[in-house]
């Protein structure tokens, strides 16, 4: 999941470099969503791991 967020961020940077503002903005939004989904899933997995240790 984090890999896809990084890929979309790179796409956004390249699009912005070449002047495609709309595509860059869309790719940034997708990257943000994927990153936050990754963070939530990581926190949930960490919490489940702590609960299972007890």
UniProtKB/TrEMBL annotation:
It comes from the Bacteria. InterPro entries: DUF1328. Keywords: Cell membrane, Membrane, Transmembrane, Transmembrane helix. The keyword Transmembrane helix applies. The chain crosses the membrane at residues 7-27, 33-51. Belongs to the UPF0391 family. HAMAP family: UPF0391. This is UPF0391 membrane protein SAMN04489707_1001148. It comes from Paenacidovorax caeni.
């Amino acid at each position: 999941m984090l890999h896809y967020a990084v890929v979309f961020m790179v796409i956004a940077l390249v699009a912005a470099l070449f002047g495609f503002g709309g595509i860059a903005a869309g790719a940034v939004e997708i990257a943000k969503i994927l990153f936050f989904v990754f963070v939530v899933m990581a926190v949930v997995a960490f919490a489940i791991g702590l609960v299972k240790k007890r």
